[in-house]
Write a structure and sequence with these properties.
9 strands; 7 helices; about 20% strand; binds guanosine-5'-monophosphate; 4-stranded mixed sheet; single chain; about 190 residues; alpha/beta
C-alpha cells in the first residue's frame, strides 16, 4: 500500500520505557502522530479512554474483529490488544508519520501486512534495570510483574528481527535517536 514508509512500529519489553520515549518524541515533534489501540484490559490510574487506549469489552473487541476493523491483534497476559485499521491507513494516505507501540507478535504482523513499515526495538540497559523500572512503576501486582518479566526474555530474543534498535539509557537522547530513524526512513525509504 502507498505510504507504508510513514509507518513506524515500536516494541520493547514491559517497563523498558518505550511509552515515555514515544511521548517525548511526540511532544518535541508534533508532526508525528501515534495510533490508539483497542484493549480489553482495565484502565490504569490516570489512563483515559480515547487517549491511552480505547477500553472496550471482550464482546466489543470480538465484534470489531469480525467487522475487519482490527488489522492485527494479540492476547497479552490475558487481555486482547489490537490496532484499528482506521488509525493507520489514514496516516499512510495523508503521508504523515505515525507510530504504533505494540508487542512483538503484532509488530511481525504489521511488517507482513505493510512491508515498507519500519520496526524499532527499544532495549533496556540490562534485565536487572528492566525489573527495577517495572517495580518502580508500581502499577502491576507481583504475579503480573513475573509474567511480564518472563515475556520480556522471549521478546528480547526476538529483537534480532527488527529493522532498528535503541537502548534506553536516558529518555531525551533515546527519543532523539528515534526521531533520526524516522527522518532517515522517510527520506530514503521506498515510496
Ligand atoms: P500495556 O498493558 O502495558 O499497556 O500493554 C501491554 C503490551 O501490549 C505492550 O507491549 C504494548 O505495546 C502492547 N500493545 C498495545 N497495543 C497493542 C496493539 O494494538 N497490538 C499489539 N499487538 N500489541 C499492543
Amino acid at each position: 500500500m502507498q505510504g507504508e514508509k510513514y509507518l513506524f512500529v515500536v516494541s520493547g519489553p514491559s517497563g523498558t520505557g518505550k511509552d515515555t520515549i514515544v511521548a517525548r518524541l511526540l511532544a518535541d515533534h508534533p508532526e508525528i502522530q501515534h495510533t490508539i489501540s483497542a484493549t480489553t484490559r482495565a484502565p490504569r490510574e490516570g489512563e483515559q479512554d480515547g487517549v491511552n487506549y480505547y477500553f472496550v469489552s471482550k464482546e466489543d473487541f470480538e465484534r470489531k474483529l469480525q467487522n475487519d476493523e482490527i488489522v492485527e491483534h494479540t492476547c497479552y497476559c490475558g487481555n486482547y490488544y489490537g490496532t484499528l485499521r482506521s488509525e493507520i491507513e489514514r496516516h499512510m494516505r495523508e503521508k504523515t508519520p505515525v507510530i504504533l507501540v505494540i508487542e512483538v507478535e503484532g509488530a511481525g504482523n504489521i511488517k507482513r501486512l505493510y512491508p515498507g513499515a519500519t520496526t524499532v526495538f527499544v532495549l533496556p540497559p540490562d534485565i536487572q534495570e528492566l525489573e527495577r523500572r517495572l517495580r518502580a512503576r508500581g502499577t502491576e501486582d507481583e504475579a503480573t510483574i513475573q509474567k511480564r518479566l518472563t515475556r520480556a526474555q522471549t521478546e528480547i530474543a526476538n529483537a534480532i528481527h527488527y529493522d532498528e534498535h535503541l537502548v534506553n539509557v536516558e529518555v531525551g537522547p533515546c527519543a532523539e535517536s528515534l526521531y533520526t530513524i524516522i527522518q532517515y526512513h522517510i527520506q530514503y525509504g521506498r515510496e
